[in-house]
Amino acid sequence: MRSPALRHVLTHLITPLLMCIGMGLAYMGAFVTPEPHHLPVAVVGAGPEAKVFAQTVKDTAGDKLDVRTVATRADAVSLLKSRDVTGAYVPSRKAPELLVATAASDMGATAVEKVFTPVAAGQGLPLKITDVAEPVADDPTGQGLFFLLIAVSIGSYASVAALGAAGAALPMRVRALLALGVSAVVAGIGALLAGPVFHLAHHALAGVWGMAWLYSAGIVFIGVGLHTFLKRWTTLTMMVLFVMLNFTSSGGLFRPELQNGFFGTLHAFWNGAGFVEGARSLLYFGNDGLARNLWTLSLWLVVGLAVTAVAGAWERSSRKERPENAVTGHTTGAAQAGERPEEPQAAPRTAEETEAEEEVEETVGV
Question: Each residue of 324-365: pLDDT tens digit?
């Protein structure tokens, strides 16, 4: 290719085109065809009639449902509040009841309603639906936490461009301190959005901030460390890790039981799922399962700190290997002749500076 400028533009177009492919594969693969896969449900009843009914439901649904029986309605409510089941059916000859927990997953509740409504209709009976864990009125679908995840994620990975590219001349320890600060600010913005602005969190706002900080800090430290090695490809890498794989596996829209095995598996350990499920635990389920989600977020932060430490060591080693510019004490001919030295000219922009500016603009645009 003869034109360096055209080659430069085409090189930069690779990133958005790869993003287009990746986002299409991730979002459409995760969200377009949600179907139950071993969706856990319960049937209330201790006698043989309840067990026969549960087996009939299981045989009819096949791999779509995992059906268990529990002795009492209270046991079913407990399983729903610990998110071990998505729905629980209470058989009755007069008024069958379906228990759901919408705060755990509005889509999951809808899925079990579709399963058991025809069962009750087949008996000629109306189905009573009871929600044992409703989201707040300001977030009727319970999906506000997913959009909070998006806001905090964008603030985190977009900050990486400024810290990694524009701040590349700063020592790694300074960038690390800035990473701590910016992640705290991003988490503060998230807490403001969740509390005073949109009222997703009617209590435990400090806890929401803490989880948002753990989540944001993990992303920022991973990005700052990776930038040392990946440079302008850091943006694409961050998009893959914390958008394509992260949003789709978070459980914010669909629980893992409504997705294919790939995204369902990621849900078990990805940081977005840790944030969303941790926030649900804190706000709706009496901290049940919160410790596990905090461990998930903490481990991602540890990974980020490790990547940043390795990058800092690599940068120090690289600087030592570079020969220092020789400094001579000779004066120029003009100075020797007593002539007035020329005014210093502004140094031309280096390729690294140009690339850093382009990277920041590209990231903000994305």
Answer: 544 444 444 444 445 555 555 545 555 555 555 555 545 544
For the whole model, what pTM was predicted?
Answer: 0.86
- Cα separation, 111 vs 234, in Å, equals 39
d(CA 203, CA 62): 41
* C-alpha–C-alpha distance, residues 117 and 114, integer Å: 6
Helices (H), 62-171: 73-81, 106-122, 144-161
Give the pLDDT confidence of 301-315 residue by residue, as tens digits: 999 999 999 999 999
Listed in order, strand segments (DSSP E) in 46-136 are: 65-70, 87-90, 97-100, 128-131
Structural contact between residues 252 and 107, judged by C-beta atoms closer than 8 angstroms: no
Nearest 10 degrees: Cα torsion 132, 113, 290, 248: -150
Letter string b/e over residues 84-93, b meaning 16 or more CB atoms within 10 A of that residue's CB: ebbbbbbbee
Residues 159 and 219: their CA atoms lie apart, in Å, by: 10
| Calpha distance 190→152 (Å, rounded) | 6
Tell how strand 39-44 and strand 65-70 pair up.
Answer: parallel
Residue 249 has pLDDT above 90, yes or no: yes
Distance CA 286, CA 125 (A): 34
Is 165's pLDDT higher than 80?
no
